Fold:
Amino acid sequence: MKFAIIAAGEGSRLAREGIKAPKPLIKLQGIPIIERLVMLFASQGASSINIIINEQQPETLALLQKLKRVYPVNIVVKDTPSSMHSLHALSHLLRGGKFCLTTVDTIFKEEEFAEYIKAFKAGENDGLMAVTDYIDDEKPLYVDTDDRLNITAFADSPTPTSRYISGGIYGLQDNALDILDECMTAGIERMRNFQRSLVRNGLELKAYPFKKIIDIDHAEDISKAEDFLSRQQ
Structure:
């Protein structure tokens, strides 16, 4: 199965808060977060790991070129205005079946991720989207589900049926990329609007709950993520 990492953001908030390293090179447990993802994906039998970074990341590119000697890494270097555009820049590498996509700053436990990938590989839905009821995000995307965890909507504000928020890990069949092409043609922007388009177009998406997922958006999130990964439970 193919995997993908979006790491094309500028990390401007972290830079304003005094973090000098590019976001993909922030270390948790002594390992850059982008390298951690590559190793996790490889441990799940990745046939390819497709990564987009922006043009202002020579240090990240140098690390990825080293990793490419060991892991099945493909690198796209391109500036994009949003995560949705970054996915589109990777989409030609993701055709041909199921793929799993995440942003570089999405931090989760390896054990939960392994179970998620197992469920995704075994499932027949169009997509299996990681969700969590742990909310520590400035602008979370709420996920509405029915009693069987079928996703019925994505919302910017909580609703009576939104028990979870998006966890930033997306398992999709490649028919989702046809809808992505349509979104690009229509001038639709932002990853959350792409996800709404998946629902509107009738794709069968299921939610997969994680106990906790952390995004590294601010300097304080680094210590939170470090503590999270160090805990046994």
Observations:
- The chain has one domain: 2-228.
- The chain is about 35% helix and 25% strand.
- The mean pLDDT is 94.
- The two ends are 28 Å apart (CA to CA).
